[in-house]
Amino acid sequence: MKQGRRYLLITPARNEAEFAQRTLDSVANQSIPPAKWVIVDDGSTDATPQLLAEFAAAHDWVEIVTRTDRGARSVGPGVIEAFYEGLDRCDLDQFDYVCKLDLDLDLPEAYFEGLMRKMEHDPRLGTCSGKAWYEDPAGGGLLMELIGDEMSVGASKFFRTTCFRQIGGFARQVMWDGIDCHRCRMNGWKVRSFRDEDLRFLHLRPMGSSHKGILHGRARHGRGQWLMGTGLVYMLVSVGYRVFSRPLLIGAAATLWGYLAACVTRPPRTVNREFRRFLHRYQWRALRRGKLRAAESIEAEMSSVWDPRRAAVPHAPATTGACSGVAAGVS
């Protein structure tokens, strides 16, 4: 049966009054509007609740969920906890696609229609996004965020519902938005972010800046890479590649510090050994061939395990545990 175009948006949000209206308006103006949009207000203390209430009153496909103020913005696990609070109020059987969408984006009006067209064209495409752009702080116009074509952007994670279920949803840890892409490939799905001009969106808050500052965000990223299972050689090459990205030198140093500190303290991981082996296989190929070619070769090899009828895996638990691979030979 041909897949429909009913899509569900889930948005965790906290203190987004500065940006929220642009996101709300850009979703309301989509050429194909969402079947449902659940916005989880994660304890906002600014004008966000009022903006959301006014928007929901004008659109019957919007539902607002209010969480208790935890006292501060919580990235990584906190964001995913809020996402699941919204998702748990929905019946995924009613939707063809599900998207985790941030509330600090300005989307082109045919954005979601364009993503669905991409997925209709390639039935193995499990998650995708456009490319995120942001305003250069130095006044040099718009810059594209450094996200490879082989990943979908965390601010706009658009999933085929079948794929989302098969990978067990999002891991409740930092780097959830990298783990999901590799788990998709483990299950025979493809992952992409597209450079098409009509799929470009504006990220109003620069990626990795963190509510505690950009260096804190870079260190968090390094820690997340260790939690995901990234190998040391790959990490060193990645840090070296970003030495001249803003903030020059110290941004890369903060990323490496976060990774090495995690190597020493060894916080608990939510990914198992089989996942890490799969990740290392991809990363060694990426060092030799580049990320996109490595992803394409892995996806070609994993085509034999792709089965959209395979049973879903339960969502990742709130407590730390193993992250299953699901695909044949991966458990």
How do the helices and strands line up, and which of them pair or pack?
Blueprint: E1 7-13, H1 20-28, E2 36-42, H2 48-58, E3 62-67, H3 77-87, E4 97-101, E5 105-106, H4 111-121, E6 125-129, E7 132-135, E8 142-144, E9 156-160, H5 161-166, H6 176-186, E10 190-193, E11 201-203, H7 214-228, H8 232-241, H9 250-265, H10 273-289, H11 291-301
Helix pairs in contact: 7-9, 8-9, 10-11
Short key terms for the protein model shown above:
7-stranded mixed sheet, 331 residues, globular, alpha/beta, single chain, Spore Coat Polysaccharide Biosynthesis Protein SpsA, Chain A, 4-stranded mixed sheet
Q: Would you tell me the structural class of the helices and strands?
A: alpha/beta
Please give the count of helices.
Answer: 11
- The SSE string, one letter per element, is EHEHEHEEHEEEEHHEEHHHHH
Q: Please identify which CATH superfamily of the domain at 7-203 we are dealing with.
A: Spore Coat Polysaccharide Biosynthesis Protein SpsA, Chain A
Number of strands: 11
State the CATH topology of the domain at 7-203: Spore Coat Polysaccharide Biosynthesis Protein SpsA, Chain A
Strand order of the largest sheet: 3-2-1-4-9-6-10
Q: How confident is the prediction overall: mean pLDDT? A: 91
Q: Give the second-level CATH assignment, the architecture of the domain at 7-203.
A: Alpha-Beta Complex
Given the C-alpha coordinates, what overall shape results? globular
- Helical content stands at 25-40%
Which sheet architecture does the biggest sheet show?
7 strands, mixed
The rounded distance between the terminal residues' Cα atoms is 30 Å
Radius of gyration: 19 Å
Q: Determine and state the CATH class of the domain at 7-203.
A: Alpha Beta
